[in-house]
Structure formats: structure tokens, C-alpha cells
Amino acid sequence: AIVPRDGQLIEIFYNGVRKFKGHVVKPKLGLKSLTVTAYGPFWWMGKITLSGLFTDATGGSADLPNYAFPTQNLRLSLQALNNRAVDKGVPMAQISDGDRAARISAMFEMLNITLEHMSFAGALAELMSMVADAVAWFDYEPTVPELHITRRDDMSTTTFAVGATGATRVESAEIFPRTDQQVRRVDLKYLKRQPLTGLPRWASKTTDASNTAITTQAHKKQWRIISVAGPDTLAMVPPSEVDSVRIRTVPKLSLKDVGRLDPVLAEGVKQFPIPNTWHDFSFPEFDGGAVVFGKTKDWMVKDYGLKTQTIQINGWYRYFRNSDWGEDRGPLENFMRKRGLWRPQQMIDNNHWWFQIFLSFPLEVINLAYPKKTTVYKKWDYDFLAPPEDLAADLKGTQDWLPWEGPVVIAQQELNGFNGLPRKVNLTNSHPDHAAMNSLVKAVTYDGGRHRVTWDLGPPARTDLGRLLSKLRRAPQDNIVRL
Q: How much is the pTM?
């Protein structure tokens, strides 16, 4: 007997058409038997570590055990993964932009995702977990095997008639519906910032805004709530200071504004009404505004382009009346003495008496204007990633159909290597529901000795509940956007 060597390349043909091409792995020669196991490109994808090329600050580059996919159509991410795998040694063909549509079914926009510390096969499973109605398969007819990813709506249909006789017949079928795999509603939960305050709050995108999809207890198992971005998707939420300030500015000072800026003067204005005062202040106009209420914060420089200047305001404030002070002299004198300048009963003319104080205080002038009292909020350091507008509907669309699961055994006189993976399967002359179930195929097994082919129907394992709820599992840094 001819015993293939470990690592030897072998090919299998049917009627001149290549059906398989792969490498032998650990052939086993017994006393009465020979076992040859050969693997195609997917085996290599499982053996080679996913990596991406990263550039450092000096311009140097290195392969690291992770790969970052940006927010983009999932078809582009699958193409990038295929081509990176080829670059790292997986024996399969590149996917060019020209043949992308022929080899990968139409997809939808997906959030950025960083995959790390896994094989290329693991990365392919992670990306395809977003698309429950898609199957990956290899076309071995070209010289170099080609990876294809086909969605259910793009698959051809194969129908087997139960009870039919001839070269191909159904020997057995043990299939059942997987109602738990059909999805009626998808809610995506994520955090978003309140536009003014920056405080995080929960938001949601749903496929069932009218709340009509879930009407029975049985439907509840077909409702998926998926967290996209929030504290539960982060090992540690980065610190983000939330701060604000109330502020008002004026382009030109009034005496009332001066009274607010000087607390003792404010007391005097309150005790001695303004109609009985006069002043010789010089009140300049400012390009931005003078801060007469509140104080600026350092973060306003970065967030709002704040520029400040401090100027000194000087002037006299005087109080006068038409007669002698009498009993009113005490409180006014005390007030004047607080300001360090007291001129008792200075007569202007026969009927007018006045007192005066000299004021000098610093004033902050800024290049921003807030004519009314305004709450200015510190801009946040990062935001939480929001899902694409249609992502909830797109995810629901990948599982909004009823899968069937179980083996269908076909007896064939001649095994022809027919590729059943990119096909939907129906059974006629069986239960009425089988005639239009359009079931996906998980695996096809050929038994050459018995002339049997087992079509293992059902959704891929990646679409079970646990994987669906974690299908948006990404590296923590993918859940926030640095600003």
C-alpha cells in the first residue's frame, strides 16, 4: 500500500473536478488498516495565531497577537481577515475587491471590534457569530482553495423526497424545530452622554418599539437583550470628571455690577439707595466680557478656548443728601470707615453733604460672552460607543427564521463529493413543515464504505443563546471613544 507522508499534499477529484485539497496529518498504518487524515485551509487557520501589524511612535512595526477591525461593513472585515490569514501562511486564496461580492454575501455595518489571543479560525467564528444565517465553506475547484461565506437568502435549495427510490434516497431523518433559536426582538443597550451635563444615561435601540413582538410566555425566550457599551462591558470605567460653573459676563460695567464685585460696596448700596449716590468710575468696554457672576475654571481653556486677562478697576463712590446727618450718621460712618476713608459731613454747597470712598479691585475679563447667567459644563473625556442605527434590525434579521436540527442520512450509489454546505435543505413526502423549512447545513459527512452521506442540519453552534448574548463581546477599549 502507498502510505502518504505526514504533511504531504493530496487532492481528491470527481469526474475531473477537484473536490478537496489538503495536507496529510499523522497517517496511521495498522496491521490490517490504513487511516489517513487530511485537513484543508481551515485546519491551518486553527493553528496560526491571529496577529495584526502595529506601528510604534518611532515608525517601527511589529506583529502583535490582536487585530483591530474598525466600524465598517462586516463584509470588509471578513475580507480583511481572510487576506491577513493568507499573508500569515494559510493556504487559501486572497479575496480581491473585484471578487468580494461573489465570495462573501452582503452584510451590514458592524461596530469596531478588537480580537486578541486567538487563532484565525477563532477570529472567523467571532466575526461570523454576528451573522447567524451564514455558512463558511471552501471551494476546492480553483488551483488555490477559496473561502466563501454565504447567507441563507443567497443559498440554492436542495430537496430530498422521502420514500423515493433510485440512486439517491432518504434513509432516515431525525429532525426537530429549534424555536429557541428564532429571534422575535432584539434590544441593544448602551450608555450615552446627556448632551449638556455629560452624565451617562442608558439608551436603547430596539426592533420592537410598539411592544407587539413578544405577546406570549413562549415568545420571551425569543427576546434578546444585548449590552453594547456600558459599565458591564468594561473591566474598569475610566475616570471622567463631571464639572460645571455658573457664569455671567457684561460688555461694560454698571455701578450695580461694581456693587456685586465688591462685597462691602454691595452692603453700602443695599443700605444707602443708589439714587442718592454718584461716582466717577471709568467703565471700559470689553471684547468678550467682564465676569460679574461666577468664576472661570481651568478646563474652559481646553474645552472652550478661554483666554483671560485681569485688569484693575479704580474709582470713587459717593453718597450725598440734602440735610445734616442727624441720627443716620452712625451706620453710614461705620460703613465708610470699613472702606478706610471717612470724610465727615463735607459740604458741597449750603444744602448738600456727601461722603466718599475710593474703590480699587481686580476684574477678570474673558474672550467669551455669557449675557445671561449660564451653566457651562466641562466637556467629557470620552464617550460610549453607540451602535449603528440599523444594527438591532440587522442582527434580528440573521435569526428571524425557524431553524431545524438533526441528521438526514442519504443513501447514494455513487459518492460525488457534492458540497452541501452552501445549500438550504427541504424534505418532501414528510411532515408538511419540512417541505419549506429551508434548513441550514452544519456539516456533511461521507461514509465511502457504506455509500452514505449524512447531512447534519441545524444552526451553527456559534448562534446559541450564550454566544448571541455575547456576540458583541469586544475588547474593553472598543466600548469607548476617546475625545
A: 0.75
pLDDT surpassing 90 at residue 173: yes
- Residues 340-376 pLDDT 10s: 544 544 555 555 556 666 677 788 899 999 999 999 9
Residues 245-300 have pLDDT tens digits of: 999 998 888 777 776 776 666 665 566 554 455 555 666 777 888 888 888 999 99
CA angle 14, 19, 25 (to 5 degrees): 120
